[in-house]
Design a protein that fits this description.
globular; OB fold (Dihydrolipoamide Acetyltransferase, E2P); five-stranded mixed β-barrel; alpha+beta; five-stranded mixed barrel
Length: 738
Amino acid sequence: MPRRPPAPAPRRARGQGRPGSGEAPPLPSKEALRRFLREAPGRVGKTEIARHFGLTSDQRPALRALLQSLKGDGSAAPAGRRGLSAPGRLPEMVAVEVTGTDPDGDPIARPLGWRSEQGRPPVIFMQPERAGQAALAPGERVLARLKPIGAGKYEGRTVKRIAAPSAARVLGVYEEGRIIPTDRRHKAEWAVPPGENAGAEPGEIVLAEPLPGRALGLRPARIVERLGRVGEPRSVSLICIHAHGIPDIFPAEAVQEAEHARAVTARGREDLRGIPLVTIDGEDARDFDDAVWAEPEGTGWRVIVAIADVAHYVRPDTPLDREAWARGNSVYFPDRVVPMLPEALSNGWCSLRPGENRGCLFVEMRFDAGGGKTGHRFGRGIMRSAARLTYEQVQAAVDAGGELPGLPTGHLPALHGAFRALLAARERRGTLDLEVPERRVLLDPQGKVTAVVPRARLDSHRLIEEFMVAANVCAAEELERLRQPCMYRIHDRPSDQKLEGLRQFLASLDISLPPGDRIQPRDFAHVLERAAGRPEELLVHETVLRGQSQAAYSPDNIGHFGLALRRYAHFTSPIRRYADLLVHRALVRGLGLGAGGLEETEAARFPDTAEHITETERRAAMAERGAVERYLAAYMAQHIGEVFEARISGVTRFGLFVTVQANGASGIVPLASLPDDRWAQDEARHMLVGQRTGLAFTLGQAVEARLVEATPRTGGMVFHLMQGAPAGRPARRGGRRG
């Protein structure tokens, strides 16, 4: 499991201006910057440099140009995605591989990932391990804390032994002396020699390690862990957890710390218990960390968003905090959740249960009639949720007249009225609002898939989204006002390459996208309007989504393109996102709200932490998507031979990809299964064309597809088309057996 690296505590340079002094300090000289980089034990970002020299946000462009100049003349080296370090300097914490021993028999190591063009690698002399631990052997990899001891030399101490690269572990299903991988990209099976199966039985999911040497035939591997049987309840999520290396067992000290937590008191907190705040979540929600309330105020609205006070319970650099950092976020599967925090907090003291006192951080916001924000304030409070509502309940009540039993009269209409105002402001901004159905897997008590259905998107969902977006914007604005570090949620504009591919695709549908680099989210909104009601509407939404950049976390703000916002941070889910916890801590420190605030060493780590939690978020997304694909394959395996209405969702030189319209199941149509012809790919028009017959298959085309294979182990599916229709010709309705 990754450990959070330490970082330097920034120091303010003598004679530099201070925030709030009213006078911008001069930019540091190149020599001052070189000295700062040399003295910093690890990498630093623009935020740390600006804070060290007391620079203002207006001086960021000039600082950026100065740093580019340093990189250009070799005085600074890129480190990570956006960091810098002194040339040749290794960070204080680095992954290393043992390469041999010195004359005294102590291990010598080198940094992992060192490239030959970087020159001669530094030598790292690893210090002896603690008593009782096995000595480091050549080839082993560890996370080491380094201390410079001379030019190109370091002393290293082991922090944690780390696993070999992921390719060195095999996750698969054991079948009579062989292992079949669970990753569809890995075609080769593995042989398990006699005596190396650890007692595994056929049909069990296993973890294995390759054995040295390779005889003729399959590569040999030794089973090291048995994880359960394929087809058993929870086996799908188990495969995804292990395939992506998601930590799912809390260390004992973290669990113990969580179980010692107690209720907050009202002392030092603003009492919100008289305000009927409510939580609104899905029927299958597993944690409740945000509550909302609204009332009319003049011609506008007053809104409160209250969030569980996780910072009260999870203090910096404690076992709980280190584990939360390592996980980065919770991971949600159809049958379970792998939480960022132990259950005593995630489902206990940090869950806003109805009728129970809970600590919270809240933001009180005021909006005019058009949804424009006129003011906000943050505070630390104690609250008592008035009700746990579901999206479906709220939507039904609004549709029926806007009241819910047990809540004060006018409560729901006020929430809905404030939402309408915020929605109007969003539409004026021209945000990117994609409608790509989310699939919901329904399981019976035995864990068998009963259905896979699109998750409904109601106005009640959008109500909570708009309130949360508004609160997140306020958090970023408040931290800037306080001159505190902020973990921004950033989203860059699409790359030129993606935009060009998107333009070509849209042109094939007679839809244009403005040229140039000044593209705005509202331009995509116009594209979606043009596609509305057309057969290709869903495909256009999916393609526009794939053409966007990925959102990320960063201490350096570039804005959020998709939401058309200049500043944005995550504040509303500290139970399940470490980024939100950091924002809470920064607010606590900046506003002087008591214990649990951001520490300076933690702030200095923001560039590393941003990269880490961005990666854990993407890891979670891949695992969650993989689980849904495997559940879909398990469900579709009951329907082999049936014909489904589908659309072509991918065109390649080796075949087509189709997506079933009813449930989103996707699979390949092999080229060999198409009518006998010479098939050529027309990349510009996203089309596969038969040279002799003139048949053509086009992206977005409606087809009938017969399912011929579904493999729950990998999530893979194979379809055959029931017809070879010319491009644009509609498919006949299906729903029969082939």
